[in-house]
User: Fold this.
Amino acid sequence: MYVAVKGGEKAIDNAHCLMAEERRGDTNIPEMTVSQILQQMRLAVDRVMSEGSLYDPALAALAIKQSRGDLVEAVFLLRAYRTTLPRFGISNPIDTSAMHVRRRISATFKDIPGGQILGPTFDYTHRLLDFTLAAESEPRPVQTDIPDEAPMPRVMDILSAEGLLEQKETDGEANVGDITRDPVTFPAERDIRLQNLARGDEGFLLALGYSSQRGFGDSHPFAGEIRMGDVAVSMTPEELGFEIEIGDITISECEMVTSFTGSKTELPKFTRGYGLSFGYCERKVMAMALVDRSLQTRELGGDIVAPSQDEEFVLSHSDNVEAQGFVQHLKLPHYVDFQADLIMMRSMREEILKQTKADKKEAA
Amino acid sequence: MNFIEGAPCRAADATHIQSTQEDEYNFGYLDEQTKRMIRRAILKAIAIPGYQVPFAGREMPMPYGWGTGGIQLSASVLGSDDIFKVIDQGADDTTNAVSIRKFFARVTNVNTTERTEEASVIQTRHRIPEIPLSDDQIMIYQVPIPEPLRWVEARESETRKMHALEEYGVMHVQLYEDIARHGRIATNFMYPVKVNDRYIMSPSPIPKFDNPKLHMSPALHIFGAGREKRIYAVPPYTIVKSLDFEDHPFEVESWDNCCGLCGAKDSYLDEVILNNEGERMFVCSDTDYCTHRREQGHLGPMAAREDIAELKGERA
Assistant:
């Protein structure tokens, strides 16, 4: 017999128990520890921290374990936890030119002051499954030069000094918006857009960035610089009145450069797109930089013709916690509204059939 | 618990993982500052009936689409002496209603009830209870899309202007197109209303059957859209008019059947398919209303059947 689904507390509890059991898997296999995830699934941890917008590798690793490796679910767990955290203050802007660099490349210049540093990267690996990894293995010892500790100016700053780059007036730390404290309104300024993109789903940004390269939009970018490494975070507590360092975070940064042929009032120049993430999320920051540049179309006086240029479209749909929720809510019961449609559908059909019958009779 | 065994992890200290216990969450889960921000938005919404007030919605531990807007409203208005009722599709025992009720029982310790008359705060998805509400009750609605103009204009920047200028002609054009095409208005739920002769408002996806219950209701009705970050309200005793035309007046749906369990003819009925032969029955969507009627001795034509024990609430 088929009966309507009436979910009791018992059903929910049992479902949670089943989920926990499936998460653990075969108990003959040792349980994975949070520190193993933290150490060996680091790129997943970094993605979860970035989109979860909370820099806490241990909690991100815990979220990945709890979500059975479902990273969007892990992002959601981290966000829900983040809401409950009190806010002690606002940190000072980080200085990425003072970064302790672990990777840094530029595609626009053959060599750059400070040098190109390949660092840990999948680039130039042959994507051949490494069967030796199936067994436990020790990595080969690495020989690297210790990177220069001196500050490394950003490549874009060099172009900027020549006046070739659009100049952004910045107001320092003042008046930076926060979409977790104020709802987004349109038109949205660049600080709001960048925060939204930094929290945005990597897959969504990747597709949008890709579309802007393929002709949906008019963007011909170069990777001015991509860098990854550690920067110090500092804040100035009011009661102290001077800056103190509160820790180091790993970040990835990307600046894309796109030529802009100018307008009636402006000289030709280069424009830039910017991407920044917690941890090592290179694909994300590159895609973010492309989309950031696309979203500047309005300010640069261009026509909005492509999805990646449309800020209401991009910003309203970039968040995967929002998107996964609304898409998946369709599995909640909707039978009351469906009943309303059912009634209308039947009575409309009835009316039409009655009418056709009457018409036929008349014709006969 | 020992999550990190001596792992040399930079900038990661796992001790705080252990220090956070479930019981340490604030009353109603949200912190007091957030609740204050939401209460201010609610007050503004009450002051401008039907106007969508943007608020800084928070991430909740339930997914967007599960009622995070309503949950944030409940978290902000519930006090320790409130009695809380949660329904989804009119029923107290649907999975999501159970889950939300459990959440608030845990984070606020308030008393919960299934009885409409007993509740001081009722959170709902898709229905308004059949029993008329009183002036000491608050209805809280979960809203997926707060913007009634969204289906005629996708852009927020445009719809806000249309509301500001009371530029609502397109809504009537849309209803007219329905009539021209189908001979009737083909909107059955989330049927737009005009509140206090000013703002057009989405009553949330309640069936249009429930729209008249909003008109001059003694209760306070507040609507929360978590993902879209909007709050709006219908204050007590406010004019709420469903959009229509003089020659095509607003109508609610009706059934040829009565409730199979309690015999009610005045309630919203759900259709239930009973078996593979396609046998159907109709039952009240408002489970509390139906139970109450049966307790009073009202019996519907199928009340004696034994193969529907689960529907009758006789089996867990």
Remarks:
- The first helix of chain B runs from residue 15 to 19.
- The longest strand of chain B covers residues 83-88.
- The two ends of chain B are 36 Å apart (CA to CA).
- The CA atoms of residues 194 and 200 of chain B lie 4 Å apart.
